[in-house]
Amino acid sequence: MVNLKINGIDIQVEKGTTILQAAKMANVKIPTLCHLDMGKIGFVNKDANCRVCLVETMNNHKLVSSCDTLVKEGMDIRTDTLKVINARKTNIELLLSNHPCDCLVCSRNGNCELQDLAAVANIKEIKCKGERIKYPLDNLSPSLVRDPNKCVLCKRCETMCNKVQTVGTLTDIGRGFPTFIGSEFKIPMTETKCTYCGQCLNVCPTGALTEVTSTDKVLKALMDDEKIVLVQTAPAVRVALGEEFGMEKGQIVTGKMVTALKKIGFDYVFDTDFGADLTTMEEATELVQRLTSEKNLPMFTSCCPAWVNFLEHNFPDMIDKPSSCKSPHEMFGAISKSYFAKENNIDPKNIVVVSIMPCIAKKYEAKRDELSNEDIKDVDYVLTTRELSNIIKNMSIDFVNLEDSEFDSPLGESTGAGVIFGSTGGVMEAAIRTAYNIITGEDLEKIEFKNLKELKGFKEAEVDIRGRKVKAAVVSGLGNARKVVELIRNKEKDYDVIEVMACPGGCVNGGGQPLLRGNTDTIEKRMKAIHSEDRNKVLRRSYQNPSIKKLYNEYLDYPGSEKSHHLLHTTFKVKTTVEK
Predict the structure, then answer these.
(1) Which residues of the chain have pLDDT under 70?
(2) Is 442 a catalytic residue?
(3) How do residues 258-271 score in pLDDT, each as one tens digit?
(4) Which one from 56, 243, 283, 330 is the annotated catalytic residue?
(5) Backbone CA torsion sign across 493, 498, 503, 505
(6) Annotation marks residue 283 as catalytic
């Protein structure tokens, strides 16, 4: 243990603790910018790039960065001397001197860490005036906008992209003043191996990385009298949307969300959980077929478009392993423009499907050529949780005090198996519940796999189905996915089914969710809420959903049928990047 003082407070901490960590234990707040510790998901950025966390060591009156300086016996630390305050303020002013002053029209206005620091430091003018970097926007991708002019060189995105997700797209470009974080050779993100997982966006403190917005296009469609606009909401949205309105972290706001969407003007408000139940039926059937034939194992889940993109770029020899199932919101879109259109005598060309997703990769996914039927896209527009909250606020809807409403039928009915798609482990758990029933004709009584509900990047489970030990793995985070795929490739591990989610923790921590600012406890609260909704459902297995039964009886025939494959399944392709 090490004894020291922080602002006159005696404190004892373990050897190897940083001054910043010790200050937190003493309830002393030190401002930071580049530093971010999200150890629960394997992300720690502490390169001391910004020099905002400076403190003074009174033993020698030196200024040191608190995020990477370890405590020593007898240290006397001050965070509140005039020397510290002026140095910190100067460093923030220098950052602002090379930053666009367009806060009012920036998408991060009101939720920008640099903006917050400037307010706390009481900066009222930019004293350091001179040359600023000026680079073009990279807005060619369907998911992500990169604005190098707002980059503060914190390198959080670079750490996330390279060390946690192992995608390797982002790096620092240049030396000295013109330096910024971008892609190698300054090529657009569309020509890189970027998966559009959005985790770089989640850790960016400014507006240097933002999502492509489709808000105006959706509002325009709502004003078109010839269009029937359907909206579907992913399970992870309902446990995060309330945070945008100051509600409890992880609070389930399903009913209020439905009411808000109806007030916005959508013709039908449906639940992506219906699509998740449908995905489960098709995916479980495919799993049973592979288990029975003992061919093409392990089967990877294919619900996560960022993971699929990652596989297509990095593991061409594994391109046959993912399930051929479309993701739930794409299945929903396909059914909306076929079955639903037929039942309601609507021309599919007049149906607009809007998906509310916790993810920016879904924006990319919706534009994939494979995800259409007779040149009609399954899904027209994707909005993130953040985009939906902005629409609700812009329309002056008092979200917190809204009454609860129910989803519309029939595409709004779902089971607990559909809900848990929003949390890591949920897709695999739902598939095994149904696969067990297909093989045995019985319900899986031990319905909860408790070891799959922890916030860990890699988990394993084993289920006995009539003497066949089905080995399952659950992976979240692309870095963990890379490790598992390489273990399988090298025959060091053997599984039957593997669920992969690109975002650490699953969709609850998607790139389109309310920004965490490093608070991983919020991820766990969202996960608990997802599983709470599952437990409170009367029906918890996808094959019990009456609307799913009706869909197969009246339209699809049976899971895995020719018609099901035509509408609900897709193909994947090996990808190469453009080299310059």
Answers:
(1) 445-454, 577-580
(2) no
(3) 999 999 999 999 99
(4) 283
(5) negative
(6) yes
